[in-house]
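Question thread 4412

I'm putting together a teaching handout and wanted feedback from people who do this every day. The idea is simple: show students a protein as raw sequence, then show them the structure tokens that encode its fold, then repeat with a second protein so they can compare. Below is the first pair exactly as I plan to print it.
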Amino acid sequence: MSLVPVEEALQRLLSDAEPLGAETVALADAFDRVLAAPLAALRTQPPFDASAMDGYAAKAADVAATPARLKVIGSAPAGRAFQGTVGSGETVRVFTGAPLPAGADTIVIQENVRDLGDGTIEVQEPSSEGRNVRRKGLDFNAGDVLLKKGRVLDAAALSLAASANHPALAVVRRPLLAIIATGDELLPPGSTPGPDQIISSNAFGVAAAAQSVGAHALDLGIAPDNRDAIAAAVRQAAEAGANVIVTLGGASVGDHDLVHEVLTGEGMTLDFWKLAMRPGKPLMFGRMGAIRCIGLPGNPVASLVCSQLFLKPLLAQLGGRPFSQNIREARLTTNMGANDRRQDYIRARVEQTGDTLTATPFGVQDSSMLRTLSEANGLIIRAPHAAAVEAGSICNVLMLR
């Protein structure tokens, strides 16, 4: 099987990935969810002409020239409207949010008023019609579409939905990612490994990548290099309702790399296997009915780079969530040799130098080295067969942070 170019692989991975169906959740549980349908207002806001300040409601004609003396005929705190009508020479004490009393058309703020102590006030600054008044429907009217389908619900959107009187919202279902690590050599963190064992790390980074685009992650633990054990984990993922199954390791060509064989036996139709990229060549993708199966490389850096390039876009698309890679131009700080037939993603430190970004690749790029990935904030992208370049040349960088 020939090596598949990165862009072709991504296109095939995403080609029929439609957003999952909708579910209704309480407003309090809707943060960071994706709206499944346009949201229309169920009410008008404000529902009446309201005072925008603490002060006194009056007729603008009475306070066009100051000082002006007015008789206080009542009070209107928020939530309790004044039931009478303001006439000439009269005023009503009002508070922010209270309905504008009938007959009044302006609010004199309390800082511009002196209480004379005999039921009257002296207005010391003039006020014009409509001053400090929030007109009915200033924010929105009943039936207005306030939020578009696909909006990721942040603090402002949730407050707006609440103001429009929605106690619950229709949102896109979150994709469920099932993660299966494979390998006799793996032990969970906190274990005491034997001389031939290592600590399993990939599942935690892959789960975090999934959660960063709104997906649920189900860690099914470590399956030994045993066909029955791997098959049992795959069936457990399917029974849990996984939309995507990710296997970690075991998808290469060694005698103990059993994942492809097991998945095929469980009904997976292979789409592609082995990409023209570094790190991440052994990546595998197929479909098992409605479930998408991705075999990520066992090397931790390759696993996380492939998660950034393929898993996150897929999960975002299934979840109806906008997603794009942050690719920027930078100047290389060192020479780089010619590339071979694979597209390289080279860990680098990207820094702002004046108006220019600079990219400095780490000297050693072994795909087992998580420390350099954690210190890198970008990946220099080098196309297949790229020519050698000198320091100062422009390169494309996929920003990680």
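The second pair follows. I'd like the answer to focus on this one:
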Amino acid sequence: MMDEYDLVGVGIGPFNLGLAALADPLDDVRAVFVDARPAFSWHPGMLLDGARLQVPFLADLVSLVDPTSRWSFLAYLREHDRLFPFYFAERFHIPRREYDDYCRWVAESLPSCRFGTRVEAVRWDADRFLVELRDTATGAARTVAARHVVLGVGTEPVVPPPFAAVLGTEVFHSGQYLHHVPALAGARDVTVVGSGQSGAEVFLDLLRRADDTGWHVRWLTRSPAFAPMEYSKLGLEHFTPDYTRYFRHLPQPVRDRLLPAQWQLYKAISADTIAEIHDVLYERSIGGRRPEVTMMPNVAVTYAAAATDGYALTCRQTQQDREFQVRTDGVVLATGYAARRPALLEPLADLIDFDEQGRYRVDADYRLSVDPRVTGSVFVQNAEAHSHGVGAPDLGLGAWRSATILNALTGGKAYRLPERTAFTSFGVGG
């Protein structure tokens, strides 16, 4: 007999893990979540000492929907006898390593989470999905049936075309930073490309190591400034369900123009990290010294090649329209992540309605538009920025999205969600 589920989750990152946690107490939802990795880990290459989440601890897996859940961050602290230390620490923004540990605790505790299991393919068979699984340790294959499927496969690192041919030990994406930084030990010059939060944290870490290593640390970005993230209280209302609803009803051409213009909402740097960088630079400049750093905004790297003494980068200052050359021994690409269409969906490709740019069409309940013959639903998590706005990758909206998906499965019975979540009225009417 084939195992049958109401919901099969593909991938166990924070978003599908939050869905698993919110589904756990629901008797009428039989769910299983699978991931090819042997255990939960969240950006292990960027778990730097001192790095904190950019969202408050209430943006855990469940609290903004159900603060009484046994899977809340406060429940994790209680389970690990850390409530009093947390209380005295007075930290609204928790260490990134602690968030990783919290999620691992939930993933290891939930019976619906199965690691070491790869999804090979998802097919539609008359009235159900067939999800083909493979045990990553033994190679054993099996198939389970599902009424619905939710994709939480995450995003993939973006490698700019100029760097594709030189990726390796000394040129790597920031997601692998802690794994690769030891290979830079003998370098004289290290370059960071990209000025989001990851780029700032990598630059700061390299800067702190430079006293021992003697590195010249360079920071290049196409952005017009090393700019702070918008973190005013009303500005943060862009990360509410109210704004998501407003954005979703805009015409697609308007959404496509608006999203890049909002880069300081989601691609900039926390003010605390900027202050830490400035503090280090200030300390290094005492006594008339000049820190061994170069920081340049408005710079696009147009070409990269291996050279006899490291790597040669051809760069262009975009406002001056002037080209210049850089020689460096290593490059850390803090160039972000992008949504991906997993190969496991290929059997469904002809049944999914993609837009003119090959992106999913996603409805208000995070359900893909599919052929009417498919009576089950395929939901997505963090693959809908083009249709739902800047909140798609934000941890603070994860619990809301999960509850919305569960309400779609249960006819609205799973969780009560407030109708209004912002003081701002983003549009007229409707």
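Top answer:
Good format. For the second protein you could add a caption like this: The radius of gyration is 23 Å. DSSP finds twelve helices and 17 strands in the chain.
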